[in-house]
UniProtKB/TrEMBL annotation:
<dbReference type="InterPro" id="IPR025751">
    <property type="entry name" value="RsbRD_N_dom"/>
</dbReference>
<dbReference type="Pfam" id="PF13556">
    <property type="entry name" value="HTH_30"/>
</dbReference>
<dbReference type="InterPro" id="IPR051448">
    <property type="entry name" value="CdaR-like_regulators"/>
</dbReference>
<dbReference type="InterPro" id="IPR025736">
    <property type="entry name" value="PucR_C-HTH_dom"/>
</dbReference>
<feature type="domain" description="CdaR GGDEF-like">
    <location>
        <begin position="164"/>
        <end position="276"/>
    </location>
</feature>
<feature type="domain" description="PucR C-terminal helix-turn-helix">
    <location>
        <begin position="330"/>
        <end position="386"/>
    </location>
</feature>
<dbReference type="InterPro" id="IPR042070">
    <property type="entry name" value="PucR_C-HTH_sf"/>
</dbReference>
<dbReference type="InterPro" id="IPR041522">
    <property type="entry name" value="CdaR_GGDEF"/>
</dbReference>
<dbReference type="Pfam" id="PF14361">
    <property type="entry name" value="RsbRD_N"/>
</dbReference>
<dbReference type="Pfam" id="PF17853">
    <property type="entry name" value="GGDEF_2"/>
</dbReference>
<comment type="similarity">
    <text>Belongs to the CdaR family.</text>
</comment>
<feature type="domain" description="RsbT co-antagonist protein RsbRD N-terminal">
    <location>
        <begin position="7"/>
        <end position="150"/>
    </location>
</feature>
<protein>
    <recommendedName>
        <fullName>PucR family transcriptional regulator</fullName>
    </recommendedName>
</protein>
Length: 396
């Protein structure tokens, strides 16, 4: 082994690079892997030559450093352990072949093969456990440090602080020189340990639906809330209805797509404003609340002062300001009627009702209100928007 360690190292390196895709494409990692293989092979050879107790062996420094680098680069621990298993397999095949070539007595060859397998097994078991411990400690330390830096950079960005775009991109792993859309996601049930994973998967589905051009940025805020940004490249995207993204227990608020660092911040602020609307509506909130909807923008302003909004609703709607299913149906029909410039036919088509039914509902709504739709029309429209998006909170 000592005489051919360079050749065996090269053979092992080729096998590992070809088999474990996580190790490809990073020259520094490959170089360190080669040094780790060399160090492990030389240590195994010394254990065999001098009959050293495997329990007293420590992992070679290059193997320890290799584990640290994998942890820092986010390569999974399975790739680390798989490299040791494949290394043991390749080294064992090499040893058995050499033994068979050099030892004519099959009993001696068999005993030598058994000894090699037993020693390397104990060595790999001990050393892989050591490097895995190093990996886990380094991974926790690295993530804690990275998350601290990420949080500081993100806070500065959202606060409007002057920050170099390249520095921010390196810290967050996200490109700013493009169009983004900010997203807020939250779970509506009791928080569980799996909520954040569900929210991250949901963000991925949302990014796909929006035509995202890369991996979205996901930043957890607590166990049940997260902020996200979907990269859209340089495309101009309009946020439409995302009804196919409905997920029981998850709510989403979406900002308006905008470019650059300023767009990154503004779209996030839009999403927070849209979330404020959904939070007021509580269980009456829609699965997706998009700030690009003019009514949502109006509702966000109305949600900022609920007492004033309730007074507006009572004044503008009169008897129509009632928290009941019947009053809600009348309000919704009237809202659509006003948006179609008082067209019964257009309203009937949009709400999927007969024209006569629409006329009955509009007449009944006017009767409950106590005055025509043209009187204080702006107040009327704002009150209807408040009821639609803020739910019972606007009429209680």
């Amino acid at each position: 082994m000592i005489e051919t360690v360079a050749d065996l190292t090269g053979e092992l390196l080729g096998v590992l690079i070809e088999t474990i895709t996580d190790l490809q494409g990073d020259p520094k990692i490959v170089e360190l892997l080669e040094a780790s293989i060399d160090g492990n092979l030389k240590t195994i050879a010394e254990v065999i030559r001098y009959d050293m107790p495997v329990a007293e062996i420590t992992a070679p420094p290059t193997a320890v450093e290799y584990a640290r680098r994998l942890a820092q680069r986010g390569v999974s621990s399975s790739a680390l352990l798989r490299a040791y298993r494949l290394g043991q397999e390749t080294a064992t095949a090499w040893a058995l072949e050499r033994i068979s070539e050099e030892e004519a007595d099959p009993r001696v060859a068999y005993a030598a093969g058994q000894a090699f397998v037993a020693i390397t097994f104990r060595y790999i078991d001990a050393v892989s456990e050591q490097v895995l411990t190093v990996y886990e400690v380094e991974r926790e330390r690295w993530l804690a440090n990275r998350n601290t830096v990420r949080a500081e950079v993100l806070a500065d960005l959202l606060a409007g602080e002057s920050i170099d775009a390249t520095t921010a991109e390196n810290a967050l792993g996200y490109r700013f020189r493009q169009t983004h859309v900010g997203v807020v996601l939250w779970s509506t049930g009791e928080p569980t340990t799996g909520d954040l994973a569900d929210l991250e998967r949901h963000l991925g589905r949302l990014a796909k639906a929006l035509g995202g051009t890369g991996q979205p940025l996901f930043v957890a805020q607590d166990r049940a809330t997260a902020w996200g940004w979907v990269p859209l490249g340089n495309a101009k995207v309009r946020i439409g209805a995302l009804t196919d993204l409905e997920d029981v227990g998850i709510r989403v608020a979406i900002g308006v797509p905008a470019p650059g660092v300023e767009g990154f911040r503004n779209s996030h602020l839009d999403a927070l404003a849209a979330q404020s609307v959904a939070l007021v509506a509580q269980d009456r909130a829609q699965a997706v609340t998009a700030y690009s909807d003019p009514e949502v923008r109006a509702a966000a302003l109305l949600s900022a002062d609920l007492d004033s909004t309730r007074r507006l609703v009572r004044s503008a709607l009169g008897g129509l300001a009632e928290d009941s299913d019947g009053a809600e149906r009348l309000r919704e029909t009237l809202r659509v009627f006003l948006s179609t410039r008082n067209s019964f036919a257009a309203t009937a088509e949009l709400v999927h009702l007969h024209k006569n039914t629409v006329k009955y509902r509009v007449d009944r709504a006017v009767e409950l209100r106590g005055r025509s739709v043209d009187e204080d029309r702006l107040d009327l429209e704002l009150a209807l928007i408040a009821c639609r998006w803020l739910g019972p909170a606007a009429v209680s």
